Amino acid sequence: xxxxxxxxxxxxxxxxxxxxxxxxxxxxxxxxxxxxxxxxxxxxxxxxxxxxxxxxxxxxxxxxxxxxxxxxxxxxxxxxxxxxxxxxxxxxxxxxxxxxxxxxxxxxxxxxxxxxxxxxxxxxxxxxxxxxxxxxxxxxxxxxxxxxxxxx
Length: 152
Description:
The chain is 40% helix and 12% strand. It has helices at 8-14, 17-20, 23-29, 39-54, 68-77, 108-124; strands at residues 59-63, 94-99, 129-131, 142-145.
């Protein structure tokens, strides 16, 4: 997929060719336990990471499965609007991605580039996802299986 020309500068600002092969980045990519994630989420992660790597954009999955205790703690901290049992993370049906060095600190255009790439990755691996960057409650790091409530 070729990004629209207006997004090129944003995509370039996310790229970090040296970081992609770095051992610290590889450790970030492997940090979450993917065995607790639905097979479709795992397929999306694999395809998304491959597509990002082709563009030298070092994003990594920072959060996947969350147990009820963790979900409730994040709710109380105001990090999430979902209580325990109300999040697709509690069922291994969601994943959050952040940049390896900028983490969540991306501007809207940078997140939009990530959204485009992620949607294309989902199409390639035939996984139906919803991106949190399309919501009124803006959560651009978040990807979940579409209709996740019917899968839990």
